[in-house]
Amino acid sequence: MSPSGDRAVAIEMSAALKRIRELEMENEVLRVAAAYLPQEAIRPKRSSRPWKN
Q: How far apart are CA 47 and CA 17, in angstroms?
């Protein structure tokens, strides 16, 4: 592979690793948020609609 090809691969790999870090952070935020939500807020009892006003 040529040096320019190696650079292109390195750039693509760097972008992929950055995206993985972003997704891992988003996943952690969602996990923490879900832990704070009571189960009734997610699945209300005796309701066919998830959210009533």
A: 43
pTM greater than 0.85 (yes/no): no
20-50 pLDDT per residue, tens: 999 999 999 999 988 888 766 666 566 666 6
DSSP 8-26: HHHHHHHHHHHHHHHHHHH
d(CA 12, CA 18): 10
How far CA 34 is from CA of 18, 26, 37, in Å, comes to 24, 12, 5
Q: Looking up tokens 């997610």, which residue turns up?
A: 42
Which of 36, 14, 35, 32 minimizes the C-alpha distance to 24?
32
Distance CA 21, CA 23 (A): 5
